[in-house]
Each structure stands twice: as C-alpha cells, then as structure tokens.
Design goal:
mainly alpha, Methane Monooxygenase Hydroxylase, Chain G, domain 1, two-stranded antiparallel ribbon, L-tryptophan 2,3-dioxygenase activity, Tryptophan 2,3-dioxygenase
Length: 239
C-alpha cells in the first residue's frame, strides 16, 4: 500500500501501469522538439542539436556524481559513472554523421537562417568543460549567453572540478588498481571527447572549407585546435 498526495492509501497493483509514452512524457517531448518544421532538412539539423543537449545533460549528471564520489574517496562509484561516458561521446559523434547527410545547399540555407546563433553558445557543453576542469573564463563573455547562463558557468568555476577531485584521490590511500582504473576511464572519456571534436571539425570543413563558421566563429580552424585540448591532462601518459 502507498499513500497518494491526498493522504489516502492506494494499492499499486490496482493502478494501471504507466505506458511507454507516459514514462517518456512523449507528448510533452514532441511538443517542444523541433520535429515539426516544414523544411525536413531544418528538422534534421535542429533535432540533432536538441539530441546533443539531452546527452550533455546526461554527461553533467554522471560527472557531478563522479566528482563527489572521488572527493569522498569512493573510487568504485566514480568509476561506474565515468565508464559509460566514452559510449555517450560516440553517440554524440553519430549526430555529426547524421548532419553530414545534408546537401551543401541545404546546410548553407540553414546556416543563413541561424543568423547570429551558434553551437558555440551551448552553455551545457561549456558546463561539461568547466566541470571537468577545462576552464577558460573568457567564455563567460560569449555573445548570446544570458545572465542565467553565465551564473551557471560561474557556479561551475566556484566548485571543485573532476580533474581536481581526481588529483586529490590519486594521491590518497586508495587501492592502486582502482586508482588506475579511474585514470584509464577518464582518459577514455577524454579521448572520445577529442574524437567528437575532431568529427565536428571535419564536418565544418566539409561544408565550409576555410570560411568562417556560424555567428562569425573561426569555423573548422578553431574546431581543429579545440580537438587538441584535454579535459584531464593528468590522465594521459606524462613525459
């Protein structure tokens, strides 16, 4: 027996189970998803970006738990939250494969329609970077960020990063084999993130060549440089 919001006792077995659509809140999801555009190419473009943002939210949840676990000395929990992340990054890389199916003229038309908006303005991805430890405070000045966006990033700056948490964990009194497994998991995630960035750069170069990207960004050149950045430098082999 359970108690409902009105304080009455209810029998869970007597209540109809939630359907697949109800569990996923599918009606609400599709109402806000950009899947109803008249232009199906625009639908593909916008839906892939919305999908990325959902996965960024998943990354943040895992990284938050992993960071807390490392600070608590719980390497096992941290490992369970970090190990799925390379797979998530491969799913995100697949979004670029979907975008690559656009015809060049369709991409060009959508790019013009975007105006001053850009994936560079994804505050959630900047949160991922800041939470991991890759912190560039200049990004707080990104054009298009709201003050609420900047507050979210400032909060990430004020909190311990996963990299800092791992640095403290690795020098603590913990089983060496577990420390090594956590390090390897962070490296795998970092590598998958680098490959995702490189796939993004290749896609931009495919459509833009050396031309500027959306919102006047540097396009493929910037993305290729970004692919060299590391979220967890200490996880990589040291000289």
């Amino acid at each position: 027996m359970t108690v409902n919001d009105a304080g009455a006792r209810t029998d869970p077995l007597a209540e109809p189970p939630l359907s697949y659509g109800q569990i996923l809140r599918l009606d609400e999801l599709l109402a806000v998803a950009r899947v109803h555009e008249d232009d199906v190419d625009r639908t593909l473009f916008l839906a892939t970006h919305q999908s990325c943002e959902i996965w960024f939210a998943v990354l943040l949840r895992h990284l938050e738990i992993a960071g807390r676990a490392l600070r608590d000395g719980d390497g096992g929990t941290a490992l369970r939250r970090i190990e799925p992340l390379p797979t998530v990054m491969r799913v995100l890389t697949g979004q670029f494969d979907a975008l690559a199916t656009l015809a060049p003229d369709a991409f060009g038309r959508i790019r013009v329609e975007l105006g001053d908006t850009s994936g560079f303005q994804s505050v959630q991805w900047r949160e991922v970077e800041f939470l991991c430890g890759l912190r560039d405070e200049r990004l707080l000045r990104t054009r298009g960020f709201t003050e609420a966006d900047r507050d979210r990033l400032r909060a990430r700056l004020a909190a311990p990063s996963v990299a800092e948490s791992f640095d403290a964990y690795r020098v603590g009194d913990h089983p060496p084999e577990l420390v090594e497994r956590v390090r390897a998991a962070l490296l795998s995630f970092d590598e998958a993130a680098a490959l995702w960035r490189a796939r993004h750069a290749a896609l931009a170069e495919r459509f833009l060549g050396g031309a500027p990207g959306t919102a006047g960004s540097e396009g493929a050149d910037y993305l290729w440089r970004a692919a060299r950045r590391r979220l967890f430098p200490a996880a990589w082999p040291q000289d």
